[in-house]
């Protein structure tokens, strides 16, 4: 019997997160003083170490654990994006939970485990590893979504996500089983080889379709989006930001790796399905967002719409499409986490102020915060010179390059519709006056740092996108 | 003299520096904020004058060009340059910068800081739009402009309907410009595919003969974006709302500069990039322009609100600009560009005039006034000059532009010119009738008796515009000469490119748009695209 090669160094970033999580779990038990702040410090330290441990992956082109995990720039790029999202979420969570009066150090533990799950998902080159990552991530998030004890909506959110998420995981697994039945392997490389050489059996296509549903569910693409608005509304606000950004990024990253890497021979089939899904997602997401009065629900529908744009990049295909997806995810990470940081701040204790009307007059009372929110709004709406614009541009470019001009036309028209609801926030902040003077906002240091990082990120990669576009392009090379 | 100083970058970004400075000043000291803003605007104007002094009027080439690589892998560059077509529009923008700050001195008293930042950012956007010679850069400036204007209408507008007007303005503009973005991408990809170098450089894209089959669709996408901005009939409905609800300065900027971005877009992008489609479309664009001229004038006639009247007169005047442009003659095009400037001067000034009386009386209804010339003689003089300039009285600027346009149009399409000329008559009707009701007769409304005449500040706002109105009217060569080489070059380029495209089309060597639409086998096409990249 031969032992499989074990290369712990390769999965070090995820390992570091897991270890930090375990340490925090134990330390947390004995903490009596400043529990949240110390938990945050430990989590951030873990994330920083993971960040350092991740750096070498950039130059590698290897696989570890008998081809189960890829050590390549693609994993590197997504790992640091996930770490970035985790760090920003941790920063803005402290203020939120101390306002709520919850000493939940477990929150940070689960957040770290979820991030580790995401990292396995993006670097897995074997459907089982991807599935295990997916489940680690999902189970952590199920618990996190329901962590507000006094809030019914939070409970509803967790239960809904759990049940529907369970379904989607089962569907994913069934798809993987069908592929295994056809090709005799779950490794992406073997699958690619098998489909390249032989004819494609109908079971393979069904398997592919089921995988697609599993990913589409996590990415919140229509028609598998039903859970999104309710879950996003009920979950604690910083976590909503993390879900919209991190879970989506991990889902899309694995989606791209599996479909571009293992199933390119089936592209004719899945590209058409994705075309339709993209169109439906963009239309439904944007038009449903038009009528929302709760900002978290609005951002939930907006995140559905953004999933649609990312799908446009996938339909575009090629390295332009894949790198466009990566760049878009990065831009979306900064933008959306920034926006959710503002939502968490304005929401105040108990999420009492999550309606659009609560933003009335924000420009008068907190001009700097209003400017920051405006920048995030512009980025979400895709107005230059923000990261969101460059992201949309790169996605649409990939689609035009592949000849999907009409898909892009639909994309830009829905994007024009989105301007209406995004600008409503602007309108509330700058042009309307509140009915009564709201209580002043309490800023926490962590939230302010998160906001500044997000703001600088949105503007920097929007105005000087060159480095990040090149990095994204380099990162997707291992897929082709 | 070779000048290494990046003058164009300077005039583009000086206002933005001013905005950054204003951002860090105390909002309580409003006077200081205003002075800072106006100083930066004046510096910008001086920069524009320096551009004029360095500009060589005998050359058709792009001058004072600055080029830096921005995103190399996509062929995006930071490329600014000025030629005879954009020169006067830049000057116009520079001129209206300080005027607008000065005009708003007493008008805008709440949230002055935000207001000044909006004005300064907008100045950057507007100058940038006229100078950008890279399609991507142009698009960035074009969209950048949108936000301050939206805030301007929405924050300082007329409380009743400002939100509606602001979002209407944004949605109209965005729909057009996003479709233009698709066309830009398609053009970029087609040209790159054919020539091997992917670039957004306008000068390089000019040289690419866009296949006949694809031209019309792409032209239409550009057309929509620019026609909304101009605005041409039937895309004009946002304009009266935006003008009526916007604060005075917002209307002035909108009329003087923003609308010109649409007409400029046609001359700079839509026509030279897609000459065949533009020539094919000339007949119906001409008809739309005529409808705009006549319809705008008729609707203006029945308005009860002076500002709305001036807004509809804009629709009519811009019809002339479009008519001259799509005549494709030297006179027509020159007249068209000159008329852009004229309209900016006279309509901008009329909005200032209306704003001044509105500040005093808080109404703009014609019926409320009458006999104002008796109580405000200086005001009456200015109002008369701008009214006459708007009508196109010989000796003032409007006449020269309209005359050239009608002359240029008559050469190729006499009936268009005949109908267009009727717009001049209608203009006289609605403007003079309005003027008569507001200014002449006895003072019937006692509220108008205590009105004060113009202050020194207000006279200073209007005086420079009068100078240019008379200058253009009496000696237009100053303005026509620098644009002549560029206009001629543009027309010959259009002719040449048109012939090349037709030639290529005959040979059947051309790429078809169908090459770009999804083929049956997706993977096969992707492989081909990749193969092209490796070549």
Distance between the termini of chain B: 43 Å
Mean pLDDT of chain B: 86
Contiguous runs where pLDDT drops below 50 for at least 5 residues of chain A: none
The largest sheet of chain A is: 2 strands, antiparallel
Q: How far do the termini of chain A sit from each other?
A: 34 Å
DSSP summary: helix tally of chain A: 19
Question: Which band does the percent of strand residues of chain B land in?
Answer: under 5%
Strand order of the largest sheet of chain B: 1-2
The secondary-structure class of chain A comes to: mainly alpha
Unreliable stretches of chain B: 512-535
What about the largest sheet of chain B?
2 strands, antiparallel
Task: Note the total helix count of chain B.
Answer: 21
> What share of residues of chain B is helical?
over 70%
Oligomer: heterodimer
Main interface by residue count: A-B, 44 and 44 residues
Strand content of chain A: under 5%
H/E topology pattern of chain B:
HHEEHHHHHHHHHHHHHHHHHHH
Specify the helix fraction band of chain A.
Answer: over 70%
Q: What is the overall pLDDT average of chain A? A: 89
The number of strands of chain A is 2
Protein architecture, described:
The complex is a heterodimer of chains A (480) and B (535). Chain A has 19 helices and two strands. Chain A is mostly helical. Chain A has a two-stranded antiparallel sheet. In chain A, strand 1 and strand 2 form a beta hairpin. In chain A, helix 9 packs antiparallel against helix 10. The two termini of chain A are 34 Å apart. Chain B is mainly α and 535 residues long. Helix content of chain B is 74%, strand content 3%. A two-stranded antiparallel sheet of chain B has the order 1-2. In chain B, a hairpin with a 4-residue loop joins strand 1 and strand 2 (76-82). Mean pLDDT of chain B is 86; it is low at 512-535. At the A-B interface, helix 11, helix 16, helix 17 and helix 19 of A face helix 5, helix 6, helix 7 and helix 21 of B.
Give a quick summary of the entry.
With 480 residues, chain A is mainly α. Chain A is 76% helix and 1% strand. The model of chain B is unreliable at 512-535 (pLDDT under 50).
């Amino acid at each position: 019997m031969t032992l499989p090669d074990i290369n712990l160094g390769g999965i070090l970033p995820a390992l570091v997160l897991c270890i930090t999580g375990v340490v925090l779990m134990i330390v947390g038990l004995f903490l009596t003083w400043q529990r949240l702040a110390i938990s945050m410090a430990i989590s951030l330290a873990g994330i920083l170490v993971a960040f350092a441990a991740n750096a070498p992956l950039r130059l590698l082109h290897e696989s570890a654990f008998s081809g189960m995990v890829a050590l390549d720039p693609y994993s590197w790029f997504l790992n640091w994006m996930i770490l970035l999202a985790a760090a920003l979420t941790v920063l803005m969570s402290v203020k939120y939970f101390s306002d709520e009066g919850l000493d939940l150090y477990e929150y940070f533990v689960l957040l770290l485990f979820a991030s580790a799950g995401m990292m396995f998902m993006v670097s897995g080159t074997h459907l089982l590893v991807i599935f295990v990552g997916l489940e680690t991530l999902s189970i952590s998030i199920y618990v996190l979504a329901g962590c507000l004890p006094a809030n019914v909506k939070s409970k509803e959110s967790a239960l809904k996500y759990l049940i529907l998420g369970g379904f989607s995981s089962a569907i994913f697994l069934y798809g993987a089983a069908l592929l295994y039945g056809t090709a005799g392997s779950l490794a992406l490389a073997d699958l690619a080889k098998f489909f390249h050489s032989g004819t494609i059996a109908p079971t393979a296509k069904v398997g592919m379709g089921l995988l697609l549903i599993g990913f589409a569910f996590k990415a919140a693409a229509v028609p598998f989006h039903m859970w999104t608005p309710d879950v996003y509304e009920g979950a604690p606000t910083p976590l909503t930001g993390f879900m919209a950004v991190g879970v989506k990024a991990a889902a899309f990253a694995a989606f791209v790796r599996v479909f571009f890497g293992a199933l390119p021979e089936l592209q004719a089939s899945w590209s058409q399905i994705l075309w339709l899904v993209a169109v439906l997602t963009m239309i439904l997401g944007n038009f449903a967002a038009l009528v929302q009065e709760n900002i978290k629900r609005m951002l939930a529908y907006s995140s559905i719409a953004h999933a649609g744009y990312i799908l446009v990049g996938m339909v575009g295909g090629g390295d332009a499409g894949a790198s466009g997806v990566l760049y878009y995810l990065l831009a979306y990470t900064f933008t959306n986490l920034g926006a959710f940081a503002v939502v968490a701040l304005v929401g105040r204790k108990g999420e009492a102020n999550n309606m659009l009307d609560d933003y009335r007059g924000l420009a008068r009372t907190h001009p700097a915060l209003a400017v920051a929110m405006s920048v995030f709004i512009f980025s979400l709406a895709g107005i230059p010179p923000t990261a969101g614009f460059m992201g949309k541009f790169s996605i649409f470019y990939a689609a035009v390059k592949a000849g999907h001009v009409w898909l892009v036309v639909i994309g830009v028209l829905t994007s024009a519709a989105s301007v209406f609801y995004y600008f409503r926030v602007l309108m509330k902040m700058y042009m309307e006056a509140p009915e009564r003077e709201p209580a002043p906002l309490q800023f926490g240091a962590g939230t302010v740092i998160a906001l500044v990082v997000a703001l600088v990120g949105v503007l920097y990669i929007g105005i000087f996108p060159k480095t990040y576009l090149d990095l994204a392009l380099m990162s997707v090379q291992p897929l082709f | 003299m070779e000048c290494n100083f990046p003058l164009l970058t300077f005039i583009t970004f000086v206002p933005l520096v001013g905005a950054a400075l204003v951002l860090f000043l105390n909002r309580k000291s409003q006077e200081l904020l205003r002075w800072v803003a106006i100083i930066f605007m004046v510096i910008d104007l001086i920069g524009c004058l320096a551009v004029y002094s360095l500009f060589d009027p005998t050359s058709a080439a792009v001058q004072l060009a600055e080029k830096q690589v921005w995103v190399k892998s996509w062929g995006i560059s930071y490329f600014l340059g000025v030629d005879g077509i954009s020169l006067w529009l830049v000057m116009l923008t520079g001129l209206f910068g300080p005027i607008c700050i000065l005009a708003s001195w007493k008008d805008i008293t709440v949230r002055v800081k935000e207001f000044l930042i909006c004005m300064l950012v907008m100045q950057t956007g507007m100058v940038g739009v006229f100078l950008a010679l890279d399609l991507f850069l142009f698009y960035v400036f074009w969209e950048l402009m949108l936000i301050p204007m939206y805030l301007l209408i929405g924050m300082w507008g007329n409380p009743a309907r400002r939100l509606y007007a602001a979002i209407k303005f944004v949605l109209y503009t965005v729909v057009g410009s996003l479709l233009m973005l698709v066309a830009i991408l398609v053009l970029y990809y087609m040209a790159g595919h054919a020539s091997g170098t992917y670039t957004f450089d306008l000068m390089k894209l000019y040289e690419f003969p866009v296949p006949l089959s694809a031209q019309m669709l792409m032209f239409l996408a550009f057309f929509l974006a620019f026609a909304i901005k101009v605005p041409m009939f039937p895309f004009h409905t946002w304009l009266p709302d935006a003008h009526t609800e916007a604060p005075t300065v917002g209307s002035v900027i909108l009329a003087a500069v923003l609308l010109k971005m649409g007409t400029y877009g046609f001359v700079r992008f839509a026509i030279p990039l897609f000459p065949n489609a533009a020539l094919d479309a000339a007949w119906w664009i001409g008809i739309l322009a005529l409808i705009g001229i006549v319809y705008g004038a008729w609707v203006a006639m029945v308005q009860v609100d002076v500002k709305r009247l001036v807004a509809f007169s804009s629709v009519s005047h811009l019809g002339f600009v479009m008519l001259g442009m799509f005549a494709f003659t030297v006179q027509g095009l020159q007249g068209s560009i000159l008329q852009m400037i004229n309209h900016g001067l006279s309509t901008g000034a009329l909005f200032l005039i209306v704003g001044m009386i509105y500040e005093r009386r808080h109404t703009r209804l014609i019926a409320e006034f009458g006999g104002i010339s008796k109580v405000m003689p200086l005001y009456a003089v200015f109002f008369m000059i701008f009214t006459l300039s708007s009508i196109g009285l010989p000796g003032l600027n409007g006449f020269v532009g309209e005359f050239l346009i009608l002359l240029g149009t008559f050469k190729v399409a006499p009936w268009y010119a005949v109908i267009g000329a009727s717009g001049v008559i209608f203009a006289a009707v609605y403007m003079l009738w309005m003027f008569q009701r507001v200014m002449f007769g006895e003072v019937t409304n006692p509220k108008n008796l205590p009105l004060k005449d113009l202050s020194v500040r207000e006279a200073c706002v209007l005086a420079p515009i009068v100078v240019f109105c008379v200058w253009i009217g009496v000696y237009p060569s100053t303005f026509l000469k620098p644009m002549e080489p560029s206009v001629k070059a543009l027309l010959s380029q259009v002719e040449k490119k048109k012939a090349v495209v037709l030639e290529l089309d005959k040979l059947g060597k051309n790429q078809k748009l169908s090459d770009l639409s999804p083929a049956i086998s997706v993977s096969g096409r992707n492989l081909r695209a990749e193969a092209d990249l490796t070549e």
